[in-house]
Amino acid sequence: MTALLPASRTADVSTTAGAAQSVRLDDVERSFPLPQGRRDVLRGVELDIAAGEIVAVVGPSGCGKSTLLRLIGGLDAPTRGSIRLDGIGVADVDERTAVAFQEPRLLPWRTIAQNVELGLPRGTARRAGRERVAELLHLVGLEHAANQRPREVSGGMAQRASLARALARNPGVLLLDEPFGALDALTRLRMHDLLLKIHAAEPTTILLVTHDVEEALYLADRVLLLRTLGGSDDDESSIARTVSVPGIRPRDRADRGLADLRADLLEGLGVDTHHRITEESR
Ligand SMILES: Nc1ncnc2c1ncn2[C@@H]1O[C@H](COP(=O)(O)OP(=O)(O)O)[C@@H](O)[C@H]1O
Ligand SMILES: [Mg+2]
To answer: In this structure, what DSSP letter does residue 143 have?
Structure first.
């Protein structure tokens, strides 16, 4: 049956759920029509992400980071180019991906466990679902909060519940849009290690949008630097740079090589780190 559908609308979840998936973007563009003309937000995006890879996306506000995640999650469609997960085109609101945002977006009248349950794939048997929710609550350290309501828990706990809900779908690709951006600095550091633990425990590919270059370098195999497209004479790609991050995880946050990459990326973001670098190299 499904073989008769066009490839771009086929998403056979049953054969692929539970395994990390590769992501491939070919010449992806997204533009929005304006009253006069149109606004190009993403252009010439070429991306090849291996199954299980962690890729961070950084770039100035408004450059299209969330748009890129929405495209990969099937929440929006490109105006040109193709997006494939494990070689199969992304379908509308693709079941193979799950998204978590900066705000946890939990339903306030449901318990933490019930919120996580909402992420289970449709048709999950009751008992299997209960076991899966318990397993995920354990993974994110929320067993003790299973019966609490979102307003009764801290921001960090709510965000852990949001991650567990996303994982409940067994996504081949986990899309995270500034997931730690609203947390205090210490909680954020703890969440980094939780994300690495999740990545080791649950087979998934991760795309992480962040404004925190250090977070990107601590967590990712590669960091994409996106740029804001210019006017009509600008025909360069949205991807300004791709940086491979050396070293196996967990990384040393104080690593010298990472400090150089950090300065590099910040410079790419328009932050002048020159003074600091010359001081350090004395
Ligand atoms: N539906 C839309 N219609 C028109 N413009 C949009 C739409 N969605 C996003 N944009 C524009 O696309 C640009 C990129 O947005 P976004 O991807 O949210 O940026 P980022 O996440 O990098 O801050 C912004 O200038 C935004 O105004
Ligand atoms: Mg955004």
So the answer is: G
